[in-house]
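Standup, Tuesday
Yesterday: got the pipeline producing structure tokens again.
Today: sanity-check two examples.
Blockers: none.

Example 1:
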Amino acid sequence: MPVFAYRGRNPRGELIEGRLESSDSGAVADQLANTGVTPIDIRQASGADPAAPAGPGALQRLFAPSITLVDLMLFSRQMFSLLKAGVPIMRALAGLEESSTNPTLTAVIADLRASLDSGRELSAAMRQHPKVFSTFYVSLVRVGESTGKLQEVFLRLFEHLEFEKEIRDRIKSALRYPAFVVVAMGFALVIINSVVIPAFAKLLQSFNAPLPLMTRMLIGVSDFFVQFWPLLAVLAVGAALAFQAWKSTPPGRYAWDKFKLGIPVAGPIINKATLARFARGLALSMRSGVPVVQGLTTVAGVVDNAYLASRIEQMREGVERGESILRTAAATGVFTPVVLQMIAVGDEAGELDDLMLEVAELYERDVDYSVKNLAAQIEPILIVFLGILVLILALGVFLPIWDLSKVALRR
């Protein structure tokens, strides 16, 4: 993190100078203002403060354990429990730092304590760790600080993260069996093309008899695979890296996220799960006191789908122009008529947060039902694919044997 040298005046008008470590000059100015210092000049220092402790090396950062969703859930729940019990926030963070079993999270909590000790707010300190605390998380913490309901915000964040983990675990569990079948099929195809078909081809070639078209195609594919498998491996790795690079670009991510929603079987589940995340996140924001426009902005950043995020941004722009949330939601084309009716009722009754929570629960029930039946929906597709594969192999193997047997019977 860069170091900034600053000059400012304290409440008595005295000139003070110093250095602060922060992500940008704006964060330094906020930190100085919180401590009563009026900044005059803030510039990035040419080098790090010699007295500052050395940060972790690149190798240590590379092998440091990542902060998982479960770690963040436990952090949120423990913060709620400690603040509810009346423990001061600095003492609560100190206790969590000592009890944390994840060294990466321990370092993050230590940095939060140092930032709070220097006068920075908790939300501003969390903003320095965007890989750990999302924009949605930081926004709700900031609202909790301004409204004095920080402990309630941590409880709602815990419930939100718990929902996220439950959805992910259900989808992973449903996809475990199909993924195992696909991997097993891949290994089987590699063995067949590299071992079985070449041995079978040598046997058939010893008879010097014409081979059927299906058999020649199988032998041709096998020969190509055996001769050029290093090139195929390099092309596969290159294609995977190119796909990842393309997907990391804004247009690529938008196109891929839009394509995912149209995938048979899986697309509707991804769509419903994302909309459930959006509805629950917006309800949580509104219940915490966040205005609708700001809530739509923060939720758009955490739906984890660029295509649907653009539709949420479209809703925000419509609300900013003075349109009703019902009209903007209908214009996106991603909500069902039942959900739009619930949004209309909530908007008219002034209970939009409650109705959005019901929308989230409606989508969650649909996702739960779809995930439970996901394996049953994928199995027929796998069976058809396996049947076609076995048919091709059987025709390629048994047709020449059948021809040879007919020749032998004629003799």
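Example 2:
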Amino acid sequence: MTITLFQDKNFRDRSMVVTGSVADLKDVSIGKNPSSIRLTGATESILLYTQKDWDGDAHYLRGPAEVADLGSKDAGGEFGFGNSVRSVRITPFRLRLNVNVIRNEAGELPGQWPTGTQQTRMQTIVTEINSFLNAQRALFTLEIARVTLRTSNAKYNLSLTDEFRFPAEWRNTHEIDVMVVNQFERDGVVGVGKFPHFGRTVMAAATFIDANGEQQSLSDSVIAYSLAHELGHYLGLQHNTANGSSANLMFPEKVNGLSGVSLSAAQIEEIQQKLARAAARGGDRHE
């Protein structure tokens, strides 16, 4: 299994096997700006960037794949990438999570979690999401920076009019602020995330109100799905990117867990585009 860059179109001229991420192709053996690429393995993926240090426009590929002309969409490439690739990435970026678990003033954790279990529950949830991202070859992974227990009756159960107002000290620059609450006070809502430029907080509930008005606890697997779905919104994916597939992460109605769920290559490319742009989510991406 190999990923090979070629200096010219149609897999011609000098070539280079990619064995690691390269921040600047200027000094590699084939010279900068390769024009074609071949991925022979089913588990391989790569990000191509038009600027050094994994910046600029991004093009994502996962194998097996052959792109005879990186500048041709018909050939599997993308307009603007013909002889303009400056850096490549095959190792995941890290997105650090600043997790706030909100209990009420009686000391009750969300979802009636036992006291003191917030760290292990969140690690279980994030580990499940990371297994999903790895299976999708998404080239980013989540890392818990900290789990902080907060006390607030007002934020334990959220109304949809108040959900984005959190104290400044609960947030952390260049990390994704995650709020785990008990529930949203509306039928069926289990998570909320805003698109780039419209918010920097992702929220997940540990319970929900069913159609009969009863409170139901959510399993860690369902919370993992909900958090992954809302992170998708945070990273630029709308529901319509699921293309109507109930097996896609961004399908708006599935809440049964991440088993059998997928992300398309186009969705992963959109996420990586957002992560490469400082105006959107660029500050959240770590080496």
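Quick observation on example 2: The helical segments are 118-135, 153-156, 220-234, 265-276. The mean pLDDT is 91.
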